[in-house]
Amino acid sequence: MQDDAHILVVDDDARLRGLLSRYLAGEGFRVTTAENAADARAKLRNFNPDLLVLDIMMPDEGGLDLTSSLRQEQKHDLPVLLLTARGAPEDRIAGFEAGADDYLPKPFEPRELVLRIRAMLRRLPPSRPEVQAGPVQLGALVFDLQRAELRGPEGIIRLTGGEAALLSSSHASPVRCCRVRTSRPR
């Protein structure tokens, strides 16, 4: 998982956000950025990153409040690394009490950030998608995993190899929106 881990970097400083994004991408991570807590919340509704790198001092909702509320919501297991200029012992303690998994004061050594991220990712349980043996119901359609075949009220719907692979790989995770075309334009 570490080689392609997806990291959400949240910092109101556009310059630092860009530097972190480029550096972490250069280390092999997929990176998405958010400029504040509201932007981070919007992005968390659309995807599940493997780790969150979060600044504490942001306008509106700060990083400690965001961390605390994520721990109370469904994102309670999302690893959070606080990256902040506030490095006093009481600030670090407040970060851990809010639910952070790690804390790195600025200025920091970029290599140390990467090593801390990799250490946090190693502690994550391996993700094994739950494989379902039988057919999967998709509205009025049924996808047979064994045959990579889609059936509808009108019979078998021919799928390309890519379409069948997509349905096979996504059957174990919830799909927010799935519209399957039952007829193809010629």
Keyphrases for this structure?
elongated; five-stranded parallel β-sheet; 186 residues; alpha/beta; 35% helix; four-stranded antiparallel β-sheet; Rossmann fold
Task: Explain what this protein looks like in three dimensions.
- This protein folds into 2 domains: 121 residues, Response regulator (Rossmann fold, 3-Layer(aba) Sandwich), CATH 3.40.50; 58 residues.
- α3 packs parallel to α4.
- The longest helix has 13 residues.
- It is α/β, with parallel strands linked by helices.
- The C terminus is likely disordered.
- The radius of gyration is 21 Å and the shape is elongated.
- A hairpin with a 2-residue loop joins β6 and β7.
- It starts with 5 loop residues before the first strand and ends in a 16-residue tail after the last helix.
- The chain has 6 helices and 9 strands, in the order βαβαβαβαβαββββα.
